[in-house]
Amino acid sequence: MQANSSTSSSEVKHPSRGVGKFFRVVLVLLVVVIAFDQVGGYILHHMYFSAKSGPFAETTFTFTKMDQDGIILGSSRGRRNYNPNLLADSLGISVYNAGHDGQTIFYEQSIIRMALARYSPKLVIIDLNPEEMYYREVHYDRLNVLAPYFKDYPEVRSIYLLKGIRDGTGEGDDFFVKPAKRSDNSWDNFWFRLHSMEEWVLPLNAERFKMFSAVYPYNSTVLDILTALFKNRKSESGFKPLKGVITREKADELIRENAKLRETPGKVVDANKLKGLEEIISTVTAKGGKVVVTMSPALAPFGMEPSYKAVQEVCAKYGVPFKDYSQDTGYARLENFFDNHMNKDGANLFSSNLAHDIKSQFFPGNF
């Protein structure tokens, strides 16, 4: 009986040992994940900032090395409709086109913060499309373009962190975010909308915590990083002109699409974007630079709407020129356009006329 008792006691399991082993395994896995994250992030960082051509190289140049006297800001319309070389020749200053396809005033705000940390530009031209100034979820998603610069360049951090605030209440540096009060379409993209249940229960700016990861800033760029190693895409001082002429049928289709877009109900002017526009104007002019806000030629005039009026008011507040060239019927010819953007001939025509207006109308005697 004693032998049986001894055998039974030796087979007794200790639950604490199993728990301890579990936590050791978890700890080892956590260390491995962190190590892979940090090493992977280091490699991606090196590859990203080693790119010699392509959009990443252009963005890095714009943020870290651009030193031209004149800067053109804008989305694809800014990038396609302004020839910096013609402006430079006419104004007698160096000019760089820092337009970026698909971006908004947030990206342009980042450019100016980075530029002013190095030098003071003499002229900044801001191309605006009224539609860009409305609140759009996708515009916050596109702040991913700033993620690779987050850790190395503090100038862009509060702008990038707006991605975690969106239409909520909070500043870019805040840990906590108050959800938006609007409840429209709250089931769309449920877990990511600021008026969803998750954001009420845990109202944190998740982007701040995600950026502890070394890989996360490059999540949306891995394929493009690899592509940049094999493709050599160049621009003319940032200018990417379009070649070709739009057809009458395509022009009519785009005009109808634009009209429908402008009649979309429920559009709200984005307060964060207006703050960004004000920051660009106020900081550049405070350093002695001049600012011109323009709306380049379009297939159909933009016309008065809430965002249009808001831009006008900001320009009037700071006393900077605002010019809507979409109203100028002199450009309304098909041979000047490729699609919604001007083609190279149209861009050259517009750039020459804009340079003349800057010298004679906006800032006579200064260039």
Give keywords.
mainly alpha, single chain, Rossmann fold, 5 strands, 46% helix, 5-stranded parallel sheet
Sheet with the most strands: spatial strand order: 2-1-3-4-5
- Spell out the CATH superfamily of the domain at 64-144 and 239-362: SGNH hydrolase
Query: How many angstroms does the end-to-end distance come to?
Result: 108 Å
CATH level 3 topology of the domain at 64-144 and 239-362: Rossmann fold
Specify the CATH architecture of the domain at 64-144 and 239-362: 3-Layer(aba) Sandwich
Note the run of SSEs as H and E.
HHHEHHEHEHHHHHHHEHEH
Query: What structural category characterises the helix and strand content?
Result: mainly alpha
Return the CATH class of the domain at 64-144 and 239-362.
Alpha Beta
Q: Which spans have pLDDT < 50 for at least 5 consecutive residues?
A: 183-192
Mean pLDDT: 85
Q: Rough shape? A: elongated
Instruction: Name the helicity range.
Output: 40-55%
Largest sheet composition? 5 strands, parallel
Strand content: 5-15%
Alpha-carbon Rg, integer: 26 Å
Distinct helical segment count = 15
Could you tell me the number of beta strands? 5
Structure notes:
The chain is mainly alpha-helical and about 375 residues long. The protein has a domain at about 65-145 and about 240-360: Rossmann fold. It is about 45% helix and about 5% strand. It has 15 helices and 5 strands. It has helices spanning about 1-10, 15-50, 55-65, 75-80, 85-90, 105-115, 135-140, 155-160, 195-200, 205-210, 220-230, 250-260, 270-285, 305-320, 345-360; strands at about 70-75, 95, 125, 290-295, 320-325. The chain has a 5-stranded parallel sheet, sandwiched between helices. β4, α14 (about 305-320) and β5 form a beta-alpha-beta unit. α13 (about 270-285) packs parallel to α14. The radius of gyration is 26 Å and the shape is elongated. The termini are far apart.
